[in-house]
Amino acid sequence: MPVRRSMLVGPTRRRPGSTGASTANAHASRLRFRVPRIELTQGAEMSGPVRRSRSGRRRGTAAVALAAAAWVLVLAVVVAVDDFPRGLVLLLCAAVVAAGAWEGVLRRGWGRVAALAVAGAALVGGVLVLGDEGYLRDLVLLGIGALIWHGAARVAFRPDVVLPAAVPPQRPVVVVNPRSGDGRAARVGLVAAAGERGIEVVELQAGDDLEALVREAVDGGADALAMAGGDGSQAVVAALAAEADVPYACIPSGTRNHFALDLGVDRDDVVGALDAFVDGGERIVDLAEVNGRVFVNNVSLGVYAEAVQQKGYRAAKVKTLLDTMAASRSPDGASQDLSWTTPGGRTMRGATVIMVSNNQYRLSGAAGAGTRPAVDQGLLGVTVADPPIGGRWRRRRPWRQWVTRDFRVDATRPVPAGIDGEAAVLTPPVVFRTRPAALRVRVAAHHPAASPSAIEPVGALPALRALLRIAGGAEPRQQPPRVPPVVRQPAP
Q: What is the pTM of this model?
């Protein structure tokens, strides 16, 4: 992997006020190395074999998973028919083992543990009941088949996508927030690593204007922008990169790094994320805005948004949320002042939580829950949670989720909001819009480049169909359903 070298030996920090000419001269003095044309050509040619290799491995593991599943089914049916009716016990055992193994693929966390525990218990029970009846060999083969099915299917559904090759930028700039993630950038040596790659570093200090620093970098000739910090800072830099039509890279040195996760950036590889400007591929994703302010993840209104406004929220989150919920859900509480319209055109008043996201989140117990399968559908995801007050059910759904291109919330007073995790107060009406295909994102070649929920759909049958599709050589990522195509829209 070719690495661009630089004369830069330490962080370079530029403040607003320097002229464009002086900034350009600083760039010229620090970034002297240019990637040879032959290296760019070789890098582009490498993507073809890499793509075919990864695609072949995914297709092969999907075929192995399907073959193992067929083996489990055929073995159980043959034994059941050959030794009827005693063989029905083994058939029942096989059904439970198969269901547990498959649910273990489709779930995560404790759901996955529970599913695999059920499968293991069924197999052990089968051995205890049928082991002395001459079925021990069949049960062992059944367990091996289920294990191969589970393991191969998980590998086939692993989010690992090869993006189209992109020419490395010549004057990339990364803005580093040294305080984000409790100083994570310093712990991993991010500034030095950026210098080794020929990436100029701008450190964001207390009191600095992030937007002004980034605009100065662009005016000085930066042809790619990266942000090492939390999601709120990522939104600022992403918006400016879209405006300047330059590539953007997300460096996950924040606390949670939700945007990085859904872009397919490995959140545990902070330094490696810098390689997005060395050998990275490019994808086009959406941005979204609320009252003209860009966000990359979501905006929350209601109880959570009010809680994050409180001074004691960081120190006592649960207590603050409970106290806020009691006040917010009272008849004159702020969350009951919100007015919104359902997809069917019905105007509703009040909601405990309204979350509007840049594309829709998967909010279930399935694998990849809490992430977005795609960030390029050109849609807003709207989730409204409105559980009963005081134990009494209202004549409305307690939970709604839908997609739309724009959304509006009315209120009679300023609306507290949590925008990408940062507290804000918005003037009503609160208007949400999507910016389809607004941002050019670079992702390092060795990172997944896809969300954890991008490959695997929700549900046993859809997942089985997806496995068949992958084994047949089709595109592994889920395609946006019933969504008309959009064209890239320049930043306003």
A: 0.77
